[in-house]
Amino acid sequence: MRTIELNKRQEQIVQIVKEQGPITGEQIAEQLNLTRATLRPDLAILTMAGFLDARPRVGYFYTGKSSNQLLSDHINKLLVKDHQSIPVVVNENVSVYDAITAMFLEDVGTLFVVNDKSILTGVLSRKDLLRASIGKQDLNQLPVHIIMTRMPNITWCEKEDTLRDVAYRLIERQIDALPVVKKTENGFEVIGRITKTNITKAFVTLSRDDDR
Ligand code: ADP
């Protein structure tokens, strides 16, 4: 994926293909007074980046896509399944005290709550646990299902969803994480976790891809 400026020769190639495509690599090379071999890396870059399309025995076409379009094409191909983390789940009957311990031990900001059949029933955030902690209740006696955000009010996603969709839901609902679920006849099984951190990491990967 390429969004950085094209070099002068690459600009020239794009211009030639725009005006004369379909055109062979040989013909482009001739016009630029270069050998086909010299041109090969540039043609490969322009094709990989999506500016040009190559068809065997026909030649190069201009795709007509701007850098911005190519970048959004690329972003829209980022899928949950390639960026998700392992979910941390607790049973709905564990105490708030144990949930706090799990959050520290597992070093996550969101816990997913499941019933005895491992089906998603709720979500616990840091603030949910803080809120419960400043009350008068005994945290060892208070089960998490009393304080959690519960189904059907959970925002979730599936592994084939795009990161863009997930980012949209995180912003819209003002939350930090979504469970990645698999639908079963009993309800949702939790198979992953996707957070703002995963999306930030994907963002960094995108900018690294540019340097290739
Ligand atoms: P924090 O409360 O630590 O800032 P969040 O912003 O993620 O963390 O959570 C805000 C509220 O939204 C909490 O009450 C939490 O239970 C709830 N929440 C968090 N994630 C989800 C989710 N995926 N679906 C529904 N509610 C959620």
UniProtKB/TrEMBL annotation:
Lineage: Bacteria, Bacillati, Bacillota, Bacilli, Bacillales
The keyword Transcription appears for this protein: yes
Residue intervals of the CBS domain: 83-139, 148-212
SUPFAM superfamilies xrefs: CBS-domain pair, Winged helix' DNA-binding domain
The organism's place on the tree of life at top rank: Bacteria
Protein's UniProt name: CBS domain-containing protein
Signal sequence residues: none
Keyword terms of this UniProt record: CBS domain, Repeat, Transcription, Transcription regulation
Entry GO MF terms: DNA-binding transcription factor activity
Family annotation (SMART domains): CBS, HTH_DEOR
HTH deoR-type domain residues: 6-67
Coiled coil segments of this chain: none
InterPro entries cross-referenced by the UniProt entry: CBS_dom, CBS_dom_sf, CBS_domain-containing, DeoR_HTH, HTH_11, UCP026546_HTH-CBS, WH-like_DNA-bd_sf, WH_DNA-bd_sf
UniProt-listed PROSITE patterns: CBS, HTH_DEOR_2
